[in-house]
Amino acid sequence: MGGGVVPGSLVLIGGDPGIGKSTLLLQVANKLSYNLPRILYVSAEESGQQVKLRASRLDVGEEEGKENSNGNKNKKKNNGKVETARENNLYVMPETDLEEILRELESLKPQVAVIDSIQTLHFAALTSSPGSVAQVRECTSALMQVGKRENITLLIVGHVTIEGAIAGPRVLEHLVDTVLYFEGDRYASHRLLRSVKNRFGATHEIGIFEMAQRGLVEVDNPSELFLGNRDEASPGTSIVVACEGTRPIVVEIQALVSPTSYTSPRRSTTGIDYNRLQQILAVLEKRVGVPLSKLDAYVASVGGLGVGEPAADLGVAIAIVASFRDRVVDPRTVLIGEVGLGGQVRLVSQMELRLKEAAKLGFKKAIVPKGQSFPSDMGLEIIPISKVIDAIIAAIPSEKSGDFPVIAEEDEI
After folding, report:
1. Is the pLDDT of residue 73 over 50?
2. Which H or E run includes 50?
3. 143 confidence band (pLDDT: 50, 70, 90)
4. DSSP states of 211-254 as a string?
5. What ranges do the domains of the chain cover?
6. Fewest CB within 10 A of the end CB: N or C in the chain?
7. Is 70 helix (H, G, I), strand (E, B) or coil?
8. Run of H or E including 190
9. Which positions ≥6 away from 184 have C-beta within 8 Å?
10. Are 181 and 15 in contact (CB under 8 A)?
11. What is the dihedral of CA 171, 176, 3, 206, to 10 degrees?
């Protein structure tokens, strides 16, 4: 969120059902209650007893080593529970009536208030049902006016449609100051909190969490999460460095090219833009001479991370060619560059950040676009290239090199 929460701002958080929005916000409210005098959690979807059960599971209100209101530190019993409890600054309000919520905000004057969720609030002055366009728009507008007037930071939960957009009118996203999307496979352990709008900071920032038994836990080094097992090299894989906002993340790209059994070959992607894959396949066939028009092509990013930026193009192209030739790309090499329609490799932004992240994780070589500027003491062997064919020669070993494993013999492209 750009380094903190701005007082009086509105933050809209959307995500699929069951992804962990309520869990995340209850944990955030609990953390803030240690430093702020009043935090209000408005539960419009769950009863007070249900919130209490979830709070007990997440150890809300109990944190070892934190000072309580009397200046004493919480002590831990043998059974793991906190012995000395402090006065709790987190207030829970199970309510769906907007007018009651507004009165409570004006009387309690919390520093932060969580509204879970905006689609379940009801404004009695309107005849429409909760969740309708009019109800969502008027409830958000009324909350915004109170938040700005009383300098209350509002964290508002929004449901999403089947297409993945926040339900309700599009004006909802224009009213608020920050829009966050909570993403991830509900059956997998990791979750991504992505900023798509922020009036007070950079957009496309991400936070990565893991769903554990006691709630969400921050992932300190997300690159390790999206790197496959590098102990055993396999053909058709490459390593790219994607930038999400100002955070570089090292991701393994996997490709599989095989003869098709259909009239038209299949193309499938996971985490990679489908149109981007089609473009790269066309460039490889036309500019490099790799016959892919009658082969199925499957490309995926490890962990399912959505890699949408063009800087991953070169890694995708190399992984496809490596799978076609059944060769292994050096697992100590990262590939960074955008592939143009003429077969050239274009410059990308934030190259220094990307190379520093690769060096920190122990990579030894980087293949980057020619003419890219970066400091000379990066701790990496930098190989500048101008065309995709140059990257193929540099990244994929020939049969005679023997520097690292060669899976099968193929003719040079």
Report:
1. no
2. helix 48-57
3. very high
4. EETTEEEE-S-HHHHT----SS--TTEEEEEEEETTEEEEEEEE
5. 10-220, 225-395
6. C
7. coil
8. strand 190-198
9. 19, 190, 191, 192
10. yes
11. -40
The pLDDT assigned to 409 comes to 40
Give the integer Cα–Cα distance in Å for 197 and 178. 5
Q: How many CB atoms lie within 10 A of CB 83?
A: 12
- pTM for the full model? 0.73
Say if CB 235 and CB 326 are below 8 A apart.
yes
196-245 residue pLDDT tens: 899 998 887 888 899 888 899 998 888 877 886 666 678 999 999 998 87
- The two tokens of residue 257 are 């090219």
H or E stretch at 30? helix 21-32
Domain 10-220: homologous superfamily in CATH: P-loop containing nucleotide triphosphate hydrolases (3.40.50.300)
Q: Which of 301, 298, 321, 320 is nearest to 249 (CA)?
A: 301
Helices 388-395 and 313-325 cross at an angle (nearest 10°) of 60
Q: How many residues does the chain have?
A: 413
Residue in this structure with the two tokens 């831990």, named with its chain if needed: 76
> What number is the average pLDDT over the span 52-81?
59
Structure tokens at 286: 């036309």
Query: For 272-300, how does the pLDDT look when each residue is reduced to its tens digit (9 = 90+)?
Result: 999 999 999 999 999 999 999 999 999 99
Structure tokens that stand for 317 in this block: 């192209």
Between β-strands 381-385 and 365-369, what pairing exists: parallel, antiparallel or unpaired? parallel
| The dihedral formed by the CA atoms of 73, 76, 77 and 78, expressed in degrees to the nearest 10 | -160
DSSP line for 93-118: EE--BHHHHHHHHHHH--SEEEEE-G
Taken in order 364, 370, 373, 377, the sign of the CA dihedral is positive
pLDDT score of 87 more than 80: no
CATH domain 225-395 topology: Ribosomal Protein S5; domain 2 (3.30.230)
Nearest CA to 381 among 397, 360, 396, 365?
365
Backbone torsions φ then ψ of 410, nearest 5 degrees: -140, 155
Instruction: Give helix then strand counts, H and E, for the chain.
Output: 10, 18
Alpha carbon distance 244, 203 (integer Å): 9
* Beta carbons within 10 angstroms of residue 158's beta carbon: 25
Overall average pLDDT of the 32-42 stretch: 92
